[in-house]
Design a protein that fits this description.
Keywords: ATP-binding, Nucleotide-binding, Transport
CATH topology of the largest domain: Rossmann fold
Bound molecules: adenosine-5'-triphosphate
Organism: Roseivivax sediminis
GO molecular function: ATP binding; ATP hydrolysis activity
Shape: globular
Largest sheet: 6 strands, mixed
Strand order of the largest sheet: 6-7-8-3-9-10
CATH superfamily of the largest domain: P-loop containing nucleotide triphosphate hydrolases
Pfam family, one: BCA_ABC_TP_C
InterPro entries: ABC_AA/LPS_Transport, ABC_transporter-like_ATP-bd, BCA_ABC_TP_C, P-loop_NTPase
Length: 238
């Protein structure tokens, strides 16, 4: 079976800086993958290229056997790549259920949207908060509303950029459970810095360093990798 997503010699330069440098990367259908790497390693630039928020300098992006490199963001979303940005893309002046309804409607139309909203609220444990304005929610819950929007859009690949940023320990654990839930029906790529969280996800890990793939493997192998420990984890990482 061919990969769901593949990049071929993907490169992005900003003047003299090569943010992404000939990256060949592949993710399978229904796979869960973590991307790690120090600040400036190129992770956000990589996500932006996958969702056409930024064009590559050179290289190609293949999704489901189709070259999507030159498509518009809306076309890529329609083909099935969803992104949850670090700063939630939610409408603070609308309620929890309205935010999720808008996402659901864009996929299934008005008729089917209500049942998608019910299922999503149940999955997120947010039924009691359904009428609350998103702007009044705690940080973690706002993040989960955006998870809800990704769930309602039902992409084939979800890109999650630092989903636990600013969360409490309990919220982080719950987020790992939600990602496992998402991953039952879609491939997920998570950019994260929280090593404990990545261990909890038990995913295959890709390490970026200075725009290149430095190492790939299961988390326990990554933790043992001398080069990764030197440039990213630090020698005392356990
Ligand atoms: N719009 C831009 N203009 C110029 N340089 C940029 C731009 N965006 C990113 N860069 C540079 O590209 C490199 C990669 O940045 P990027 O934000 O992708 O890294 P990152 O791994 O996501 O970092 P972080 O973990 O801090 O989010 C950095 O050297 C950064 O300064």
């Amino acid at each position: 079976m061919t990969a769901l997503l593949e990049t071929r010699d993907l490169t992005r330069r900003f003047g003299g800086v090569t943010a992404i440098d000939n990256v060949n990367f592949a993710v399978d259908h229904k796979e869960l993958r973590c991307l790690i790497g120090s600040n400036g390693a190129g992770k956000s630039t990589f996500f932006k290229m996958l969702t056409a928020q930024m064009p590559p300098s050179t290289g190609r992006i293949i999704f489901d056997n189709r070259d999507i490199t030159d498509l518009e963001p809306s076309e890529i979303a329609r083909l099935g790549i969803g992104i949850k940005n670090q700063v939630p893309d939610v409408l603070d002046g609308m309620s929890v259920e309205e935010n999720i309804w808008l996402a659901a409607r864009s996929r299934v139309g008005r008729e089917g949207a209500l049942s998608v909203v019910e299922d999503t609220l149940a999955l997120l444990d947010l039924r009691v908060r359904r009428k609350d304005l998103v702007g009044n929610l705690a940080h973690g819950q706002r993040q989960w509303v955006e998870f809800g929007m990704v769930i309602a859009l039902a992409p084939r690949l979800a890109l999650l950029d630092e989903p636990t940023a600013g969360m409490t320990a309990a919220e982080t654990i719950r987020t790992a459970e939600l990602i496992a839930e998402l991953n039952k029906t879609m491939a997920v790529i998570v950019v994260e810095h929280d090593m404990q969280f990545i261990r909890r996800l038990n995913a295959f890990v890709t390490v970026f360093h200075q725009g290149r793939v430095l190492a790939e493997g299961p988390m326990h192998r990554i933790m043992e990798n001398e080069e990764v420990r030197n440039v990213y984890l630090g020698r005392d990482a356990a």
